[in-house]
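Incident log, structure service

09:12 report received: a user says their structure output differs between two submissions of the same chain.
09:20 pulled the input from the user's history:
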Amino acid sequence: MSTNQADLDSKAHWDGVYTRVADNSMSWYCSHLATSLRLIRTSASLDAPILDVGGGHSTLVDDLLELGYRRVAVLDVSPVALSRAKGRLGESAKRVTWLSGDVLTTPILQGSFAVWHDRAVFHFLRNPQQHLEYRRQIERVLQPGGSLILATFGPQGPLKCSGLEVCRYDDHSLATEIGPQFRLIESLIEMHQTPSGGQQQFQYCHFIRE
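09:34 re-ran on a clean worker, output below:
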């Protein structure tokens, strides 16, 4: 399958998910991403350029704007998800840079971000080539000394999500995938309560780009 076809298939899948399911009914929905916010606040000034990968309908952008962050960008493969987020934010959406595309192939200016935040995208990437392309994007986009904040399903997390198989990680395996150029400074397990009342185990890792 070509890269362009893979991008189209991914877009179609996630557009379908966001069309069928209400934001606050999706299993990963959280009204406030407290752990993500804490890690960002401890590593980035209000002027720091922040990229939320797969941020679609996430409330993280709302909270970052409320806290006074002035250079926030949201990347998502689904235009439907981005449209819903813009509608929720109203006039505040004009303060955000919206990027529609696949994280592996979307052209982003080199060294343009001080924080790369990804909650629940990386674990959908299941083959070595995708991991390589993901690392290349981070290495190109994230500034030296910048923060890489990754949250994936943990060792006891789900095996599938939104009809797709996922990979599960602990802090050691995630650090191995990301590579030695990123230094792990904090890791933690978080139990996320889904809107339906279930629980999902997330592994959070905060890296610094050397």
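09:41 both user submissions now match this output. Likely a transient worker issue. Closing.
09:42 reviewer note: The chain is about 35% helix and 30% strand. Strands lie at 50-53, 72-76, 96-100, 113-119, 142-153, 160-161, 164-165, 182-193, 199-209.
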